[in-house]
Every structure is written in structure tokens, then in C-alpha cells.
Amino acid sequence: MPDFEQRDTTIVAASGDDPEDAAKMRAAEGLTFDVAHSVDVPDFAERYGSFFNPDRGCLHATGFVLEESGTVAHAVYATGSIGRLTPDATIRAIDFMISQAS
């Protein structure tokens, strides 16, 4: 988290889980950032172009780096167990955005 804090960034996760399950997952994973819960998963998928598997009722991993305005500057969509937005890749994307703003 220090790499993100040094860049004055905020990390947020979104989950379709209810508040209790989202809190359990946050604790189990040792997350130190906010996890929004009770997200309408099909609506989220439609709005952001994420892959929603209706047979399993789950949203596949989707990662965004947003500009201060909320505009998506970088996105990674996964339809399986690979293709996640890693912390290192996120820092590189943020550093690129900072370099372009200068």
C-alpha cells in the first residue's frame, strides 16, 4: 500500500456479496482498503463491460485505473483465472498517467 499512498491514490473493491460476507472476505484477505458490497452484479457488468457468467451468477475479475475525473484510463478484463490487474502493473499505469500530466 505504501506505493499507492505515495502517489496519493485510493484503492476500492466492489463485490456482489452482502455486507457480512464482504467484511469476512476483506478480513480473510487482509485488505486495508474499502470494499463496496451489495453491488448489482449484472448491472455492473453491463455498465462497465465486465464478463458476467449468468450460469454461476458471478462477475469475472475487472480492474480499473481511473483519472481524478472518474474517467477510465486503464482497464483489465478477465474471463478466467488469469489476467488480473496486478499491483505492479497498476503502479506503472499510475506513473505513466502522472508523467503525461506533467
Describe the structure.
This protein is α+β, with helices and mostly antiparallel strands. The protein is built from 4 helices and 6 strands, in the order H-E-H-E-H-E-E-E-E-H. The protein has helices spanning 2-6, 19-29, 41-48, 87-101, and strands at 12-14, 34-36, 52-53, 58-59, 62-66, 72-77. It has a two-stranded parallel ribbon. A two-stranded antiparallel sheet has the order 3-4. Strands 5-6 form a two-stranded antiparallel ribbon. It is globular and about 45 Å long. The two termini are 24 Å apart.
Give the helix proportion (percent range).
Answer: 25-40%
Amount of beta strand: 15-25%
Indicate the overall shape: globular
**Mean of all residue-level pLDDT scores:** 89
Number of helices: 4
Secondary-structure element string: HEHEHEEEEH
Low-confidence regions: none
The assigned structural class equals alpha+beta
> How far is the first residue's CA from the last residue's CA?
24 Å
Number of strands: 6
> Compute the gyration radius: what is it?
14 Å
